[in-house]
Amino acid sequence: MKIEWDMINMAREVAIIGIGCTSFGEFWDRSFRDIFVEAGVAAIEDAGVQGEEIDELFVGNMSAGRFIEQEHIASLIADYAGLASLHVPSTRVEAACASGGLAIRMGVLAIASGHADIVVVSGVEKMTDVSTQDATDMLTAAADREWEGATGATFPGLYAMIAKRHIHEYGTTREQLASVAVKNHHNATMNPKAQFHSEITVDAVLRSAMIADPLRMLDCSPITDGSAAVVLAPADLARKYTDTPIAIIASAQASDTIALHDRADITTLAATTAAASVAHKMAKTTPDDIDFVEVHDCFTIGEICAIEDLGFFPKGTGGKVTEEGITAIDGDLPVNPSGGLKGCGHPVGATGIKQAVEIVQQLRGEAGKRQVAGEIGMAHNVGGSGGTAVVHILSR
Amino acid sequence: MLYGDCMGVPRFWRHISSRYNLIGTRCATCGEYYFPPRTMCPKCRRDGVIEDHRFSGHGEVITYTIIHAAAEGFDRETPYPLAIIQLDEGPRMTGQVVCDPDKIAIGMRVKPIFRRLGEDGAAGIIYYGTKFMPM
């Protein structure tokens, strides 16, 4: 049966009642356990819930098995969060870099189904306990290992091939790609949790080391340690805990081929388009209704494709509108006010949760110097080169 | 890290016919060609009839990059061109193109060549497979 998304509502509406996030960066002195406990406790304190009230835990994590040689982290998290003796069900969710966004969707479904009331969803990745080259190889596992990775493809290499084709088809320029990184670094200077607090210039991007032509070092999101968490509740219970619940008015997910080469259009992440379409049907919104968006800018070309594939701008114009400042923090559609993956950092499993944390801060009016105006925000989280996309729409 | 650490000998060996000779598959029901090989036709699903097909390996560069920061096991080859090739039968695959990095271009016609892909150190096994070169 094909589900008519516009015909259904979630059985129970869900809201975010608490948020927590560690600083993002390279934390040689802090462990995997240290960071998820910090983020989780912050979210639980923000929500004002007690441990005994928590019905279920979900954690987004891409690859603890390879980054820290630890599987079974759902149990580890319940244990070190102090919830083992309560035997709270805990589940790890994995969809490469979209693990965090997908974990939120699992939490939403647990509440919408009536199975749970209070759900804590966290995301965590500890990436700097291995060498940069090992981390790069682990990220390649998000692509098709046998038919992409084994030929010598890297993750930047796959996005570079998207960029090359985008340049070929639409005349996108090297400077336009760089303008994404410049903007997101600027936004990150206003985010105390961000990995980078330095402004960069287009010229600096164009002079940075070549990684995979045409992408250079400053086109790439960094390797990052970090964790973020949100507390979810049914909308009808949310005001018991907070005066400023943020409603999740859409939670959508879509799949596509794991290998980039199997996509009919190399420059379109069709999973993004599909997830956005479902999300808008659920929320009864259009792209014009979205006031600001956190998108998956793992590489500069990723943001350009995202703002096109989410329907904000016609295909091929993403570079131009970025260069013109339309997506700047004071532009018509602020994109990645947090600094995005590029400026804020990209602890892969935590990224999708951090996007939601940012949108909640913005909608509560707690975003400080990077505050943008608006009632409705969107989060867009991608796994791999587009094999999974998750889109959430949040409303005040 | 060695090439075999991510792929492993059996994992590589079981697809040697595909890696050496570009044996993919074709669905006899709809006529669609698949490389890398698939055991399920995404168009016909259970109505599909999958048979082997040997691809000529002739095709066209759809997009490409020049890898400067290499994947593990490919460090000695940088900078190397990597491309998505559309085979003449239709399917697309990812592969290295052996040519001057300045010469590769979208639309370039290529043909297959048999090359070393990687090895498990000085004493370990050598992994071979298909790369491409300009026609």
What does this protein structure show overall?
The complex is a heterodimer of chains A (396) and B (135). Chain A has helices at residues 32-47, 64-67, 73-80, 99-112, 132-140, 155-170, 174-188, 202-207, 235-238, 270-283, 300-309, 318-323, 340-344, 348-364, and strands at residues 14-21, 54-60, 90-93, 118-125, 210-213, 215-216, 226-234, 246-255, 292-294, 376-383, 388-395. The mean pLDDT of chain A is 96. With 396 residues, chain A is α/β, with parallel strands linked by helices. In chain A, helix 4 packs across helix 14. Chain A is globular. In chain A, the strands form two sheets. Chain A has a nine-stranded mixed sheet, with helices on both faces. A two-stranded antiparallel ribbon of chain A has the order 5-6. By secondary structure, chain B is mainly β. Chain B has one domain (3-134). In chain B, 12% of the residues lie in helices and 40% in strands. In chain B, strands 6-5-4-7-8 form a five-stranded antiparallel sheet. Chain B is globular and about 45 Å long. The model of chain B has no long low-confidence stretch (mean pLDDT 93). Classes of the chains: A alpha/beta (396), B mainly beta (135). The interface between A and B is medium-sized, with 35 and 35 residues.
